[in-house]
Amino acid sequence: MNRPMHPPSGHDFDQDLARALASGRDVSCPGFADRAVQAIGADRRRRTLLRWGSGLTTAAACLLAAFVLQGGGDDSLAQRADALAASDESRQLSDILGFVDELSFLTPAIDPHSVVDALINPEL
Amino acid sequence: MSPEELPPPEDEEDKRLMALVASGDDDALRLLVHRHHVRLVGYLRSEVGSQTTAEELAMEVFIRLHRAAGRWRPEAKLTTYLIHIAHNLVLNEWRRRGRKPTTALDSAPEPGDLSHDSARRVNELDEAFRQAVALLPPEQRTAILLLVQQEMPYEEIAAVMEAPVSSVKTWIHRARTRLRELLKDHYDPA
């Protein structure tokens, strides 16, 4: 491009521009159509998988929601939570835990030999 | 519709093929790609300067065309639609590169017969033009390529570039002016 030269006779700028660009207009690519069809097929399969994956995820979410809501609504869940907090079982558990604490407090005062004597001698 | 208003037969064939593609006909798809890929790759090669990148982008154009086949309405020529997709991909490519594509083509498409001096000079001048076009700003380059290489009317160029016709005319005028500056040595020898 840096080397000056005379353009071919009878040519002008616009003609030269048109000829230069037209020479690059059509570019042959052997096998392109087959490769393109393969790539499009792969894209189609990928999108099909994505659609199925999305559908399965949605279905799983719906099933989970149905399972959770099967036990009743939010009011029911709240009532069950309150009932559990006020249940006797939890109170019994607290009692048991307290008793265990007392046992733990008393354990160091027990003499192992006295326990053995008591087992050997029933009069004690 | 009068005979003068009838679209060219090529457009009718494109419409027929697109309808078949939308219904899943792979033979029609192959034929459609075969009809348009040579020119599409030529345009993309002129834009990005690389045969490999041009083919990759052309592949992506046809993938997107296939995805849109069911929604495609033949309001515009298929060639215009393809170039529109290609132009958007070129813009993405420029953004991905992080710079404007100012590199020249990786090689001349056809060397021609170098045994004759006049043919050699023509080839050199063609190469000088292609390198000068590669140096243009992106909008000017695209506009001049679509006008001169793809022989599109201003309205179609405006549709492809999503710009007013007046802007297209401005870009083309500036492109010609810039090309004359870049190639002045070839036309005003000292």
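Residues 1-10 of chain A have pLDDT under 50 and may be disordered.
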